[in-house]
Amino acid sequence: MPDAIKKVLVTGASRGIGKTIAQKFKEKGLLVVGTATSSKGVEEIIKNGHIGLEVNLNQNNSIYNFLKILGEDHTDISILINNAGVTRDNIVLRMREEEWSEVINVHLNGTFKITKKILKFMIKKKWGRVISITSDSASLGNKGQANYAAAKSGMEAFSRSLANEVGSRGITVNSVSPGYIETDMTKEMDGLKKEEIITTIPLLRFGKTEDVAELVFFLSSDEASYITGQTVHINGGIYM
Count of domains in the chain? Predict the structure, then answer.
């Protein structure tokens, strides 16, 4: 990683995987800009020693203002981690249009809009890393997650196409696809359901957010400079 590369943007950095990714980059000496959808989330990001910005990726005005701030104050961002996410699970026959649209907006449209903005900064430097956090739901097609699976699959396809477009500019683009990871959401999961899931994982455990953060940091490093256009699964073997 060149000495001039000092700042990373992590969307959805107030909790879960995004929070751990942000902390990993901070430990390695990078300045982190993190986003959250609420002022409380921004406060959490700032408390963790990062720059906190509020953006709701389901609202066009919020995105417009956020991108404007990036263009004014953060043109030195050279690493982008598209991590912000939301779930609105329901089977297709019962899924409301707004449940479909919100998930697509936050994951897929949000990734497109933010990446497009940050790419301009990266191209000027002739160096950059774009990493999108997807999900094994994109490959497995989990029942009740048609919106989520479609959005995450779209992010992976977007990354492959973009990798072809910007590789000659010194920019790599990859996706990281986690399986079951220990987060606040999984801690609330019914114990019997959790045990049932664990029996389907060859490594017989859920992953840790630190596992994902280590992989993301590696893909951001010069050691991973020949890896682009890939979806890297980190799931204990549940999907091979």
Answer: 1
pLDDT digits (tens, 9 = 90+) for 133-169: 999 999 999 999 999 999 999 999 999 999 999 999 9
Cβ(213)–Cβ(20) below 8 Å: yes
Q: What is the CATH number of the domain that holds 124?
A: 3.40.50.720
Number of H helices, E strands in the chain: 10, 7
CA-to-CA distance for 95 and 144, rounded, in angstroms? 9
In a domain, 16, yes or no: yes
Mean residue pLDDT of the chain comes to 96
> Annotated catalytic, 148?
yes
In a domain, 94, yes or no: yes
Which of 148, 180, 226, 239 is labelled catalytic? 148
Q: What are phi and psi of 56, to 5 degrees?
A: -110, 110
| Contact between 52 and 45 (Cβ < 8 Å) | yes
Residue 148 structural domain: 7-181+208-234
Q: If you average pLDDT over residues 105-111, what whole number do you get?
A: 98
Q: From the CB of residue 76, how many other CB atoms can be counted at a distance below 10 Å?
A: 13
